[in-house]
Design goal:
8-stranded antiparallel barrel; 4 helices; 9 strands; 22% helix
């Protein structure tokens, strides 16, 4: 299990933030293409609100690494950052994993396609995410930190407006778009 503390940066020029981070010493660690499949069941609610089960098919284009991961993210209540416990296992066969899950009555699978550029900066991870138009049409940035003090420093260094910091999940952002 890994504990994750993160926020999303919405409604900002993320290309400008990326350039600023690089100028301040951010080091690129990955360029990925991902297929993310969020899994649920039409028969039962097993997973707590805002927690989720996901298959991620990942191709790291810079490092020529491919992985398939099954992750359960359990949301922990925290008003200032999105805090999760993340349980991840790697596996070889995506179709077989999907069949196992379907046989356990996890019959709803929603795929999204994402391109991600990741950087290490001040001990944090900066992810610049670009989803396919159907999944989420606006690029955003995620900042993942070890503690909240680091987050405050990074936000100041990158000159990010506080009103553009969000703890919403991608599912919540998608729901907001549907409600517009």
């Amino acid at each position: 299990m890994e504990q994750e503390l993160e926020v999303k940066i919405l409604n900002e020029d993320i290309e400008k933030i990326k350039k600023r981070a690089i100028a301040l010493g951010a080091k690129k660690i990955a360029h990925e293409k991902q297929i993310n499949t969020v899994i649920s069941s039409s028969s039962f609610d097993l997973i707590e609100e805002d927690s989720y089960l996901r298959i991620r098919q990942l191709k790291d284009l810079d490092n020529n690494i491919s992985k398939n991961q099954l992750t359960f993210k359990k949301k922990i209540q925290n008003d200032t950052v999105r805090e999760n416990y993340e349980y991840t296992v790697e596996f070889d066969h995506v179709d077989r994993m999907k069949e196992i899950l379907k046989n356990l009555q996890f019959d709803q699978m929603h795929e999204g396609f994402k391109e991600r550029y990741s950087y290490e900066f001040q001990g944090a991870r900066l992810d610049f995410d670009y989803w396919d138009e159907k999944t989420y049409p606006y690029p955003y940035m995620e900042i993942e930190v070890k503690n909240q003090k680091d987050l405050k420093e990074i936000i100041e260094l990158l000159e990010i407006s506080e009103e553009n910091i969000s703890t919403k999940s991608i599912t919540q952002l998608q729901q907001e778009l549907k409600e517009r």
